[in-house]
Amino acid sequence: QVQLVESGGGLVQAGGSLRLSCAASGSMFRFNVMGWYRQAPGKQRELVAALFSGSGSIANYADSVKGRFTISRDNAKNTMYLQMNSLKPEDTAVYYCNEAQNGKHYWGQGTQVTVSS
């Protein structure tokens, strides 16, 4: 059974940085597409960044985070990361880890990120 556990969220001032981690178990991690989503109060969940499998993994970012966020993965540790720099109050949301395997999507429990102005 695929399990995803996020960590690293918290409260930070605008302009600060946070690094989120997502530890995966029970999956073919190195072969799967991984992604970070977020959901702010009253808004729909949106894709923040996605990382495809294989060497030289290709990453896609939402326009709102390009140049500020970096997604990465460590296949040896079955862990994915999201480095978030220059955080803005509008980045405040619950951040979810997602893994796509065999046509199914798996989600972590989410981690809260709050950016104060």
Give an overview in words.
Strands 2, 4, 5, 6, 9, 10 and 11 form a seven-stranded mixed beta sheet that branches. Strands 1-3-8-7 form a four-stranded antiparallel beta sheet, with no helix packed on it. The mean pLDDT is 93. The protein contains no helices and eleven strands. By secondary structure, the chain is an all-beta fold.
- Give the N-terminus to C-terminus distance in angstroms: 40 Å
Shape summary: globular
Oligomeric description of these chains: single chain
The helix content is under 10%
The tally of beta strands, per DSSP, is 11
Number of helices: 0
Question: Which parts are unreliable, with pLDDT below 50 for 5 consecutive residues or more?
Answer: none
Strand content: over 45%
Mean pLDDT: 93
Helix-strand pattern, N to C? EEEEEEEEEEE
Structural class: mainly beta
The largest pleated sheet is described as: 7 strands, mixed
* Computed CA radius of gyration, to the nearest angstrom: 13 Å
